[in-house]
Specification:
alpha+beta; about 280 residues; about 25% helix; Alpha-Beta Plaits; homodimer; about 25% strand; 2 domains; globular; 6 helices; ten-stranded mixed β-sheet
Protein backbone atom coordinates (compact mmCIF):
# COMPACT_ATOMS: atom_id res chain seq x y z
CA UNK A 1 0.00 0.00 0.00
CA UNK A 2 1.15 3.60 -0.46
CA UNK A 3 3.26 5.00 2.37
CA UNK A 4 0.84 7.92 2.39
CA UNK A 5 -2.65 6.42 2.73
CA UNK A 6 -4.21 9.38 0.90
CA UNK A 7 -2.49 8.29 -2.33
CA UNK A 8 -3.43 5.66 -4.92
CA UNK A 9 -0.90 3.05 -5.97
CA UNK A 10 -0.59 2.06 -9.66
CA UNK A 11 1.22 -0.86 -11.25
CA UNK A 12 3.14 -0.21 -14.48
CA UNK A 13 4.32 -2.96 -16.83
CA UNK A 14 7.25 -1.83 -18.95
CA UNK A 15 9.68 -2.81 -21.68
CA UNK A 16 12.88 -1.16 -22.89
CA UNK A 17 15.85 -1.50 -25.16
CA UNK A 18 18.64 -0.86 -22.64
CA UNK A 19 21.32 -0.08 -25.24
CA UNK A 20 21.20 3.69 -24.88
CA UNK A 21 20.26 3.87 -21.17
CA UNK A 22 22.61 4.15 -18.19
CA UNK A 23 20.43 1.52 -16.52
CA UNK A 24 17.16 1.83 -14.61
CA UNK A 25 18.09 4.01 -11.65
CA UNK A 26 17.82 7.79 -12.07
CA UNK A 27 21.22 9.54 -11.96
CA UNK A 28 21.87 13.22 -12.47
CA UNK A 29 23.16 13.95 -15.96
CA UNK A 30 22.60 10.41 -17.19
CA UNK A 31 19.87 9.06 -19.44
CA UNK A 32 18.05 6.41 -17.40
CA UNK A 33 14.79 4.48 -17.73
CA UNK A 34 13.49 5.72 -14.38
CA UNK A 35 14.50 9.29 -15.26
CA UNK A 36 12.69 9.27 -18.63
CA UNK A 37 9.57 7.65 -17.22
CA UNK A 38 9.31 10.02 -14.25
CA UNK A 39 9.93 13.05 -16.46
CA UNK A 40 7.25 12.14 -19.01
CA UNK A 41 4.74 10.82 -16.50
CA UNK A 42 4.89 14.19 -14.69
CA UNK A 43 4.35 16.04 -17.99
CA UNK A 44 1.45 13.86 -19.12
CA UNK A 45 -0.22 14.11 -15.70
CA UNK A 46 0.62 17.82 -15.53
CA UNK A 47 2.11 17.63 -12.04
CA UNK A 48 4.97 19.84 -10.95
CA UNK A 49 6.85 17.24 -8.95
CA UNK A 50 8.02 14.04 -10.62
CA UNK A 51 6.29 10.98 -9.14
CA UNK A 52 8.77 8.37 -7.92
CA UNK A 53 8.77 4.95 -9.58
CA UNK A 54 9.89 1.82 -7.72
CA UNK A 55 10.77 -1.16 -9.90
CA UNK A 56 11.12 -4.91 -9.41
CA UNK A 57 14.58 -5.25 -10.97
CA UNK A 58 17.07 -2.37 -11.06
CA UNK A 59 18.74 -3.24 -14.36
CA UNK A 60 22.30 -2.12 -15.15
CA UNK A 61 23.39 0.03 -18.09
CA UNK A 62 22.77 -1.80 -21.36
CA UNK A 63 20.45 -4.45 -19.88
CA UNK A 64 17.04 -4.78 -21.57
CA UNK A 65 13.62 -5.52 -20.13
CA UNK A 66 10.57 -7.11 -21.60
CA UNK A 67 8.64 -7.59 -18.36
CA UNK A 68 9.83 -4.92 -15.93
CA UNK A 69 7.25 -3.99 -13.28
CA UNK A 70 7.09 -0.75 -11.30
CA UNK A 71 4.71 1.03 -8.99
CA UNK A 72 3.95 4.68 -8.40
CA UNK A 73 1.81 6.47 -5.80
CA UNK A 74 -0.37 9.30 -7.09
CA UNK A 75 -2.97 11.71 -5.74
CA UNK A 76 -6.46 10.16 -5.95
CA UNK A 77 -8.23 10.87 -9.23
CA UNK A 78 -5.07 12.07 -10.99
CA UNK A 79 -4.99 9.00 -13.21
CA UNK A 80 -8.68 8.76 -14.04
CA UNK A 81 -8.28 6.92 -17.35
CA UNK A 82 -5.24 4.61 -17.22
CA UNK A 83 -5.65 3.41 -20.83
CA UNK A 84 -5.67 6.95 -22.14
CA UNK A 85 -2.67 7.94 -20.03
CA UNK A 86 -0.79 4.84 -21.24
CA UNK A 87 -1.44 5.87 -24.86
CA UNK A 88 -0.41 9.48 -24.25
CA UNK A 89 2.70 8.39 -22.38
CA UNK A 90 3.80 6.08 -25.20
CA UNK A 91 3.37 8.86 -27.72
CA UNK A 92 5.74 11.19 -25.86
CA UNK A 93 8.22 8.68 -24.42
CA UNK A 94 11.44 8.06 -26.38
CA UNK A 95 11.04 5.06 -28.66
CA UNK A 96 13.35 2.79 -26.69
CA UNK A 97 10.94 2.49 -23.76
CA UNK A 98 7.30 1.41 -23.77
CA UNK A 99 4.57 1.19 -21.14
CA UNK A 100 2.54 -1.94 -21.79
CA UNK A 101 -0.09 -1.25 -19.18
CA UNK A 102 -1.00 0.91 -16.21
CA UNK A 103 -3.47 -0.63 -13.77
CA UNK A 104 -4.62 -0.04 -10.18
CA UNK A 105 -2.26 -1.93 -7.86
CA UNK A 106 -4.03 -4.55 -5.74
CA UNK A 107 -4.07 -4.02 -1.96
CA UNK A 108 -0.61 -4.55 -0.49
CA UNK A 109 1.22 -4.52 -3.84
CA UNK A 110 4.84 -3.37 -3.89
CA UNK A 111 6.65 -3.85 -7.24
CA UNK A 112 9.91 -4.63 -5.48
CA UNK A 113 8.99 -6.29 -2.21
CA UNK A 114 5.92 -8.27 -3.32
CA UNK A 115 7.83 -10.01 -6.12
CA UNK A 116 8.50 -13.71 -5.48
CA UNK A 117 10.83 -14.24 -8.42
CA UNK A 118 12.59 -12.51 -11.31
CA UNK A 119 13.32 -14.32 -14.55
CA UNK A 120 16.22 -13.16 -16.73
CA UNK A 121 17.39 -14.56 -20.06
CA UNK A 122 20.97 -14.19 -21.23
CA UNK A 123 21.44 -14.72 -25.00
CA UNK A 124 24.69 -15.99 -26.47
CA UNK A 125 25.71 -16.53 -30.07
CA UNK A 126 28.34 -19.08 -31.00
CA UNK A 127 31.30 -18.23 -33.23
CA UNK A 128 30.13 -20.60 -35.95
CA UNK A 129 26.51 -19.41 -36.01
CA UNK A 130 26.27 -15.73 -36.88
CA UNK A 131 23.00 -14.11 -35.89
CA UNK A 132 20.89 -11.56 -37.66
CA UNK A 133 22.40 -8.08 -37.17
CA UNK A 134 18.99 -6.83 -36.08
CA UNK A 135 19.42 -8.80 -32.84
CA UNK A 136 23.06 -7.86 -32.20
CA UNK A 137 22.31 -5.62 -29.20
CA UNK A 138 20.46 -8.48 -27.49
CA UNK A 139 23.25 -11.00 -27.79
CA UNK A 140 26.78 -11.57 -26.61
CA UNK A 141 29.10 -13.39 -28.98
CA UNK A 142 31.04 -16.32 -27.56
CA UNK A 143 34.67 -16.73 -28.60
CA UNK A 144 34.58 -20.52 -28.38
CA UNK A 145 31.75 -23.05 -28.77
CA UNK A 146 30.12 -24.40 -25.61
CA UNK A 147 28.71 -27.79 -24.64
CA UNK A 148 25.15 -27.34 -23.40
CA UNK A 149 25.08 -30.65 -21.54
CA UNK A 150 28.17 -29.63 -19.57
CA UNK A 151 26.59 -26.26 -18.81
CA UNK A 152 23.30 -27.79 -17.71
CA UNK A 153 24.73 -30.46 -15.46
CA UNK A 154 26.90 -27.84 -13.71
CA UNK A 155 23.92 -25.51 -13.46
CA UNK A 156 22.13 -28.11 -11.36
CA UNK A 157 24.81 -27.78 -8.67
CA UNK A 158 23.90 -24.15 -8.09
CA UNK A 159 20.14 -24.46 -7.60
CA UNK A 160 18.45 -23.85 -4.27
CA UNK A 161 19.02 -21.64 -1.24
CA UNK A 162 22.67 -20.67 -0.77
CA UNK A 163 25.07 -17.80 -0.34
CA UNK A 164 25.84 -16.43 -3.82
CA UNK A 165 28.55 -14.12 -2.50
CA UNK A 166 30.98 -15.57 -5.04
CA UNK A 167 28.81 -14.19 -7.86
CA UNK A 168 27.97 -10.79 -6.40
CA UNK A 169 29.53 -7.43 -5.94
CA UNK A 170 29.52 -7.02 -2.14
CA UNK A 171 27.51 -4.24 -0.59
CA UNK A 172 28.01 -3.40 3.07
CA UNK A 173 25.24 -4.84 5.23
CA UNK A 174 23.46 -6.61 2.37
CA UNK A 175 23.03 -10.34 2.30
CA UNK A 176 24.03 -12.41 -0.72
CA UNK A 177 21.80 -15.34 0.22
CA UNK A 178 19.33 -16.14 -2.53
CA UNK A 179 17.17 -19.02 -3.78
CA UNK A 180 18.08 -19.97 -7.33
CA UNK A 181 14.96 -21.53 -8.86
CA UNK A 182 16.04 -22.16 -12.47
CA UNK A 183 19.33 -22.12 -14.31
CA UNK A 184 19.53 -23.76 -17.71
CA UNK A 185 20.81 -23.27 -21.24
CA UNK A 186 18.80 -24.10 -24.36
CA UNK A 187 19.64 -23.70 -28.03
CA UNK A 188 16.87 -22.09 -30.10
CA UNK A 189 16.08 -24.31 -33.05
CA UNK A 190 13.41 -22.20 -34.67
CA UNK A 191 12.66 -18.67 -35.73
CA UNK A 192 14.87 -15.71 -36.55
CA UNK A 193 17.22 -16.37 -33.62
CA UNK A 194 17.78 -20.06 -34.46
CA UNK A 195 21.19 -21.16 -33.17
CA UNK A 196 21.19 -18.67 -30.29
CA UNK A 197 21.76 -20.08 -26.79
CA UNK A 198 19.25 -18.81 -24.25
CA UNK A 199 20.33 -19.08 -20.62
CA UNK A 200 17.37 -18.77 -18.28
CA UNK A 201 18.01 -17.67 -14.71
CA UNK A 202 15.22 -17.40 -12.19
CA UNK A 203 15.63 -16.60 -8.50
CA UNK A 204 13.65 -15.00 -5.68
CA UNK A 205 15.95 -12.00 -6.11
CA UNK A 206 19.42 -11.18 -7.41
CA UNK A 207 22.34 -9.28 -6.05
CA UNK A 208 24.41 -6.99 -8.24
CA UNK A 209 26.02 -8.64 -11.32
CA UNK A 210 24.80 -12.07 -10.16
CA UNK A 211 23.13 -13.15 -13.43
CA UNK A 212 26.06 -12.13 -15.58
CA UNK A 213 28.55 -13.84 -13.24
CA UNK A 214 26.50 -17.06 -13.10
CA UNK A 215 26.33 -17.27 -16.89
CA UNK A 216 30.00 -16.30 -17.10
CA UNK A 217 30.85 -19.26 -14.85
CA UNK A 218 28.66 -21.64 -16.87
CA UNK A 219 30.35 -20.51 -20.10
CA UNK A 220 33.75 -21.24 -18.53
CA UNK A 221 32.59 -24.79 -17.83
CA UNK A 222 30.69 -25.19 -21.13
CA UNK A 223 33.71 -24.18 -23.19
CA UNK A 224 35.89 -26.73 -21.38
CA UNK A 225 38.23 -24.10 -19.93
CA UNK A 226 37.03 -25.06 -16.43
CA UNK A 227 35.28 -28.06 -14.90
CA UNK A 228 32.51 -28.74 -12.38
CA UNK A 229 35.04 -29.05 -9.52
CA UNK A 230 36.20 -25.49 -10.23
CA UNK A 231 32.60 -24.27 -10.18
CA UNK A 232 31.95 -25.95 -6.80
CA UNK A 233 35.12 -24.43 -5.41
CA UNK A 234 34.20 -20.94 -6.68
CA UNK A 235 30.69 -21.23 -5.26
CA UNK A 236 31.85 -22.50 -1.88
CA UNK A 237 34.23 -19.56 -1.47
CA UNK A 238 31.20 -17.31 -1.00
CA UNK A 239 33.45 -14.36 -1.79
CA UNK A 240 34.09 -13.09 -5.26
CA UNK A 241 37.36 -14.40 -6.61
CA UNK A 242 39.40 -13.54 -9.67
CA UNK A 243 38.90 -15.53 -12.89
CA UNK A 244 35.13 -15.30 -12.80
CA UNK A 245 34.01 -13.31 -15.85
CA UNK A 246 31.03 -10.95 -15.73
CA UNK A 247 29.50 -11.09 -19.21
CA UNK A 248 28.53 -7.97 -21.17
CA UNK A 249 25.22 -6.26 -20.37
CA UNK A 250 23.75 -6.37 -23.90
CA UNK A 251 23.02 -10.11 -23.76
CA UNK A 252 20.77 -9.73 -20.72
CA UNK A 253 17.00 -9.16 -20.63
CA UNK A 254 14.69 -9.04 -17.61
CA UNK A 255 11.89 -11.17 -19.03
CA UNK A 256 9.34 -11.53 -16.25
CA UNK A 257 8.61 -10.81 -12.60
CA UNK A 258 6.44 -13.18 -10.57
CA UNK A 259 3.99 -12.06 -7.87
CA UNK A 260 1.80 -14.11 -5.55
CA UNK A 261 -1.98 -14.06 -5.87
CA UNK A 262 -3.40 -10.78 -4.60
CA UNK A 263 -4.07 -12.10 -1.07
CA UNK A 264 -0.38 -12.99 -0.69
CA UNK A 265 0.98 -9.58 -1.61
CA UNK A 266 1.17 -7.86 1.73
CA UNK A 267 2.59 -10.87 3.69
CA UNK A 268 5.19 -11.34 0.94
CA UNK A 269 6.28 -7.72 1.15
CA UNK A 270 6.86 -8.08 4.90
CA UNK A 271 8.79 -11.34 4.40
CA UNK A 272 10.96 -9.90 1.60
CA UNK A 273 11.96 -6.91 3.71
CA UNK A 274 13.48 -9.14 6.35
CA UNK A 275 17.09 -10.12 5.74
CA UNK A 276 17.58 -13.64 4.39
CA UNK A 277 19.67 -16.05 6.44
CA UNK A 278 20.68 -19.65 5.79
CA UNK A 279 19.38 -20.85 9.15
CA UNK A 280 15.62 -20.43 9.32
CA UNK B 1 28.65 -17.88 -65.24
CA UNK B 2 31.27 -15.14 -64.82
CA UNK B 3 31.50 -12.68 -67.71
CA UNK B 4 35.22 -13.44 -67.75
CA UNK B 5 35.53 -17.24 -68.04
CA UNK B 6 38.87 -17.19 -66.22
CA UNK B 7 37.14 -16.15 -63.00
CA UNK B 8 35.27 -18.15 -60.38
CA UNK B 9 31.78 -17.12 -59.31
CA UNK B 10 30.79 -17.25 -55.62
CA UNK B 11 27.37 -17.01 -54.01
CA UNK B 12 27.06 -14.95 -50.80
CA UNK B 13 24.09 -15.16 -48.44
CA UNK B 14 23.71 -12.00 -46.37
CA UNK B 15 21.74 -10.28 -43.65
CA UNK B 16 21.71 -6.67 -42.50
CA UNK B 17 20.02 -4.16 -40.27
CA UNK B 18 19.25 -1.45 -42.84
CA UNK B 19 18.70 1.33 -40.27
CA UNK B 20 22.10 2.99 -40.68
CA UNK B 21 22.66 2.18 -44.37
CA UNK B 22 21.78 4.34 -47.38
CA UNK B 23 20.49 1.16 -48.99
CA UNK B 24 22.27 -1.62 -50.87
CA UNK B 25 23.76 0.18 -53.87
CA UNK B 26 27.23 1.71 -53.50
CA UNK B 27 27.17 5.53 -53.67
CA UNK B 28 30.13 7.86 -53.22
CA UNK B 29 30.17 9.41 -49.76
CA UNK B 30 27.33 7.25 -48.47
CA UNK B 31 27.42 4.23 -46.16
CA UNK B 32 25.91 1.36 -48.16
CA UNK B 33 25.75 -2.42 -47.76
CA UNK B 34 27.44 -3.03 -51.11
CA UNK B 35 30.13 -0.46 -50.29
CA UNK B 36 30.97 -2.00 -46.90
CA UNK B 37 31.00 -5.55 -48.26
CA UNK B 38 33.21 -4.70 -51.25
CA UNK B 39 35.60 -2.71 -49.07
CA UNK B 40 36.07 -5.46 -46.48
CA UNK B 41 36.06 -8.33 -48.96
CA UNK B 42 38.96 -6.65 -50.80
CA UNK B 43 40.87 -6.19 -47.54
CA UNK B 44 40.30 -9.76 -46.33
CA UNK B 45 41.30 -11.18 -49.74
CA UNK B 46 44.17 -8.69 -49.96
CA UNK B 47 43.29 -7.53 -53.46
CA UNK B 48 43.89 -3.97 -54.63
CA UNK B 49 40.71 -3.57 -56.62
CA UNK B 50 37.33 -4.03 -54.92
CA UNK B 51 35.44 -7.01 -56.33
CA UNK B 52 31.95 -6.06 -57.54
CA UNK B 53 28.95 -7.64 -55.85
CA UNK B 54 25.64 -8.16 -57.67
CA UNK B 55 22.61 -8.74 -55.46
CA UNK B 56 19.13 -10.21 -55.92
CA UNK B 57 17.22 -7.29 -54.39
CA UNK B 58 18.59 -3.75 -54.36
CA UNK B 59 17.06 -2.61 -51.08
CA UNK B 60 16.38 1.07 -50.34
CA UNK B 61 17.79 3.09 -47.44
CA UNK B 62 16.47 1.74 -44.14
CA UNK B 63 15.22 -1.57 -45.55
CA UNK B 64 16.52 -4.71 -43.82
CA UNK B 65 17.47 -8.10 -45.22
CA UNK B 66 17.52 -11.52 -43.67
CA UNK B 67 17.99 -13.50 -46.89
CA UNK B 68 19.77 -11.24 -49.39
CA UNK B 69 21.78 -13.12 -52.01
CA UNK B 70 24.70 -11.76 -54.03
CA UNK B 71 27.40 -13.07 -56.34
CA UNK B 72 30.97 -12.04 -56.96
CA UNK B 73 33.54 -13.12 -59.55
CA UNK B 74 37.07 -13.70 -58.29
CA UNK B 75 40.40 -14.89 -59.62
CA UNK B 76 40.67 -18.69 -59.34
CA UNK B 77 42.15 -19.88 -56.06
CA UNK B 78 41.75 -16.50 -54.36
CA UNK B 79 39.02 -17.82 -52.11
CA UNK B 80 40.53 -21.19 -51.24
CA UNK B 81 38.75 -21.63 -47.90
CA UNK B 82 35.27 -20.03 -48.05
CA UNK B 83 34.43 -20.89 -44.41
CA UNK B 84 37.57 -19.25 -43.15
CA UNK B 85 37.02 -16.15 -45.31
CA UNK B 86 33.40 -15.94 -44.07
CA UNK B 87 34.65 -15.97 -40.48
CA UNK B 88 37.34 -13.36 -41.13
CA UNK B 89 34.91 -11.17 -43.02
CA UNK B 90 32.37 -11.24 -40.19
CA UNK B 91 35.05 -10.28 -37.68
CA UNK B 92 35.98 -7.12 -39.61
CA UNK B 93 32.58 -6.13 -41.04
CA UNK B 94 30.53 -3.55 -39.10
CA UNK B 95 28.09 -5.28 -36.79
CA UNK B 96 24.98 -4.33 -38.77
CA UNK B 97 25.84 -6.64 -41.65
CA UNK B 98 26.59 -10.36 -41.58
CA UNK B 99 27.66 -12.91 -44.19
CA UNK B 100 25.85 -16.17 -43.47
CA UNK B 101 27.68 -18.21 -46.07
CA UNK B 102 30.01 -18.04 -49.05
CA UNK B 103 29.79 -21.00 -51.44
CA UNK B 104 30.83 -21.77 -55.01
CA UNK B 105 28.04 -20.64 -57.36
CA UNK B 106 26.54 -23.46 -59.41
CA UNK B 107 27.01 -23.32 -63.19
CA UNK B 108 24.90 -20.53 -64.69
CA UNK B 109 24.09 -18.84 -61.37
CA UNK B 110 23.42 -15.11 -61.36
CA UNK B 111 22.16 -13.68 -58.03
CA UNK B 112 19.93 -11.20 -59.83
CA UNK B 113 18.86 -12.84 -63.06
CA UNK B 114 18.56 -16.48 -61.90
CA UNK B 115 16.16 -15.55 -59.09
CA UNK B 116 12.57 -16.71 -59.68
CA UNK B 117 11.02 -14.86 -56.76
CA UNK B 118 11.74 -12.44 -53.94
CA UNK B 119 9.82 -12.58 -50.65
CA UNK B 120 9.51 -9.45 -48.52
CA UNK B 121 7.74 -9.02 -45.19
CA UNK B 122 6.38 -5.67 -44.06
CA UNK B 123 5.72 -5.44 -40.31
CA UNK B 124 3.08 -3.16 -38.83
CA UNK B 125 2.14 -2.42 -35.24
CA UNK B 126 -1.34 -1.29 -34.30
CA UNK B 127 -1.96 1.77 -32.13
CA UNK B 128 -3.47 -0.34 -29.34
CA UNK B 129 -0.72 -2.98 -29.26
CA UNK B 130 2.66 -1.46 -28.43
CA UNK B 131 5.63 -3.61 -29.42
CA UNK B 132 8.88 -4.24 -27.66
CA UNK B 133 11.23 -1.27 -28.21
CA UNK B 134 13.93 -3.71 -29.30
CA UNK B 135 11.94 -4.30 -32.51
CA UNK B 136 11.06 -0.67 -33.19
CA UNK B 137 13.36 -0.32 -36.23
CA UNK B 138 11.71 -3.32 -37.89
CA UNK B 139 8.16 -2.05 -37.58
CA UNK B 140 6.01 0.78 -38.79
CA UNK B 141 3.32 2.01 -36.42
CA UNK B 142 -0.20 2.33 -37.82
CA UNK B 143 -2.26 5.36 -36.83
CA UNK B 144 -5.56 3.49 -36.98
CA UNK B 145 -6.46 -0.19 -36.52
CA UNK B 146 -6.92 -2.32 -39.65
CA UNK B 147 -9.26 -5.18 -40.55
CA UNK B 148 -7.18 -8.12 -41.76
CA UNK B 149 -10.08 -9.77 -43.58
CA UNK B 150 -10.64 -6.61 -45.60
CA UNK B 151 -6.92 -6.44 -46.39
CA UNK B 152 -6.74 -10.08 -47.44
CA UNK B 153 -9.80 -10.09 -49.66
CA UNK B 154 -8.51 -6.99 -51.46
CA UNK B 155 -5.05 -8.52 -51.71
CA UNK B 156 -6.52 -11.37 -53.76
CA UNK B 157 -7.51 -8.89 -56.49
CA UNK B 158 -3.87 -7.99 -57.10
CA UNK B 159 -2.38 -11.46 -57.54
CA UNK B 160 -1.05 -12.72 -60.86
CA UNK B 161 0.60 -11.23 -63.93
CA UNK B 162 -0.26 -7.57 -64.46
CA UNK B 163 1.13 -4.11 -64.96
CA UNK B 164 1.99 -2.73 -61.51
CA UNK B 165 2.77 0.72 -62.90
CA UNK B 166 0.35 2.22 -60.36
CA UNK B 167 2.60 1.03 -57.53
CA UNK B 168 5.99 1.86 -59.02
CA UNK B 169 8.22 4.81 -59.55
CA UNK B 170 8.57 4.93 -63.35
CA UNK B 171 11.96 4.41 -64.90
CA UNK B 172 12.43 5.21 -68.60
CA UNK B 173 12.48 2.05 -70.71
CA UNK B 174 11.75 -0.30 -67.78
CA UNK B 175 8.65 -2.45 -67.68
CA UNK B 176 6.38 -2.48 -64.64
CA UNK B 177 4.83 -5.85 -65.52
CA UNK B 178 5.31 -8.36 -62.73
CA UNK B 179 3.79 -11.59 -61.42
CA UNK B 180 2.55 -11.17 -57.86
CA UNK B 181 2.64 -14.63 -56.26
CA UNK B 182 1.62 -13.91 -52.65
CA UNK B 183 0.10 -10.96 -50.85
CA UNK B 184 -1.41 -11.49 -47.44
CA UNK B 185 -1.56 -10.08 -43.93
CA UNK B 186 -1.33 -12.20 -40.77
CA UNK B 187 -1.33 -11.22 -37.12
CA UNK B 188 1.40 -12.85 -35.03
CA UNK B 189 -0.18 -14.54 -32.03
CA UNK B 190 2.96 -15.88 -30.42
CA UNK B 191 6.44 -14.87 -29.41
CA UNK B 192 8.02 -11.50 -28.65
CA UNK B 193 6.31 -9.80 -31.60
CA UNK B 194 2.80 -11.03 -30.72
CA UNK B 195 0.21 -8.56 -32.04
CA UNK B 196 2.38 -7.43 -34.95
CA UNK B 197 0.85 -7.65 -38.43
CA UNK B 198 3.13 -9.31 -40.96
CA UNK B 199 2.35 -8.54 -44.60
CA UNK B 200 4.01 -11.05 -46.91
CA UNK B 201 4.66 -10.02 -50.51
CA UNK B 202 6.20 -12.42 -53.01
CA UNK B 203 6.68 -11.73 -56.71
CA UNK B 204 9.00 -12.78 -59.52
CA UNK B 205 10.57 -9.34 -59.18
CA UNK B 206 9.68 -5.88 -57.92
CA UNK B 207 9.98 -2.43 -59.34
CA UNK B 208 11.03 0.51 -57.21
CA UNK B 209 8.84 1.23 -54.12
CA UNK B 210 6.39 -1.49 -55.21
CA UNK B 211 6.23 -3.41 -51.91
CA UNK B 212 5.76 -0.31 -49.80
CA UNK B 213 3.06 1.04 -52.15
CA UNK B 214 1.19 -2.28 -52.24
CA UNK B 215 1.12 -2.47 -48.43
CA UNK B 216 0.24 1.24 -48.28
CA UNK B 217 -2.79 0.55 -50.49
CA UNK B 218 -3.85 -2.47 -48.41
CA UNK B 219 -3.62 -0.39 -45.22
CA UNK B 220 -5.87 2.24 -46.82
CA UNK B 221 -8.47 -0.47 -47.45
CA UNK B 222 -7.91 -2.28 -44.13
CA UNK B 223 -8.41 0.90 -42.11
CA UNK B 224 -11.70 1.60 -43.92
CA UNK B 225 -10.48 4.88 -45.44
CA UNK B 226 -10.80 3.31 -48.91
CA UNK B 227 -12.64 0.34 -50.39
CA UNK B 228 -11.95 -2.48 -52.85
CA UNK B 229 -13.43 -0.46 -55.74
CA UNK B 230 -10.83 2.26 -55.09
CA UNK B 231 -8.06 -0.34 -55.12
CA UNK B 232 -9.27 -1.75 -58.45
CA UNK B 233 -9.41 1.73 -59.92
CA UNK B 234 -5.89 2.57 -58.68
CA UNK B 235 -4.51 -0.68 -60.06
CA UNK B 236 -6.22 -0.32 -63.44
CA UNK B 237 -4.75 3.14 -63.91
CA UNK B 238 -1.32 1.53 -64.36
CA UNK B 239 0.24 4.94 -63.65
CA UNK B 240 1.09 6.15 -60.20
CA UNK B 241 -1.61 8.45 -58.89
CA UNK B 242 -1.81 10.70 -55.85
CA UNK B 243 -3.30 9.38 -52.61
CA UNK B 244 -1.31 6.15 -52.65
CA UNK B 245 0.97 6.14 -49.60
CA UNK B 246 4.47 4.64 -49.73
CA UNK B 247 5.10 3.28 -46.24
CA UNK B 248 8.32 3.92 -44.29
CA UNK B 249 11.38 1.80 -45.09
CA UNK B 250 12.00 0.50 -41.55
CA UNK B 251 9.04 -1.90 -41.64
CA UNK B 252 10.40 -3.76 -44.64
CA UNK B 253 12.68 -6.81 -44.71
CA UNK B 254 13.85 -8.85 -47.70
CA UNK B 255 13.31 -12.30 -46.22
CA UNK B 256 14.18 -14.77 -48.96
CA UNK B 257 15.12 -15.13 -52.61
CA UNK B 258 14.04 -18.19 -54.59
CA UNK B 259 16.17 -19.87 -57.28
CA UNK B 260 15.36 -22.81 -59.53
CA UNK B 261 17.20 -26.12 -59.16
CA UNK B 262 20.76 -25.86 -60.47
CA UNK B 263 19.87 -27.14 -63.97
CA UNK B 264 17.36 -24.32 -64.39
CA UNK B 265 19.73 -21.48 -63.50
CA UNK B 266 21.13 -20.57 -66.89
CA UNK B 267 17.80 -20.77 -68.80
CA UNK B 268 16.16 -18.65 -66.08
CA UNK B 269 18.87 -15.98 -66.36
CA UNK B 270 18.26 -15.71 -70.12
CA UNK B 271 14.49 -15.53 -69.59
CA UNK B 272 14.75 -12.89 -66.84
CA UNK B 273 16.90 -10.63 -68.99
CA UNK B 274 14.17 -10.38 -71.64
CA UNK B 275 11.63 -7.63 -71.02
CA UNK B 276 8.29 -8.84 -69.61
CA UNK B 277 5.18 -8.17 -71.67
CA UNK B 278 1.54 -8.96 -70.98
CA UNK B 279 1.05 -10.75 -74.31
CA UNK B 280 3.20 -13.85 -74.48
Amino acid sequence: MPADASRERWRLDLGYDGTAFSGWAAQTGRRTVQGELQLWLARVLEVGEQPRLICAGRTDAGVHARGQVAHVDLAPGLLADPRQVTGRLNRVLPDDVVVWRIAPAPEGFDARFSAIWRRYVYRLSEPEAPVHPIYRHQLTALRAPVDLDRMNSSAGLLLGLRDFGAFCRRREGATTIRTLLDLRADRLTDGPMAGVIECTVRADAFCHSMVRSLIGALVEVGSGRRDAAWLEQVTAAAVRGPGLPVLAAGGLTLEEVGYPADTGLAPRAVEARTVRTLTA
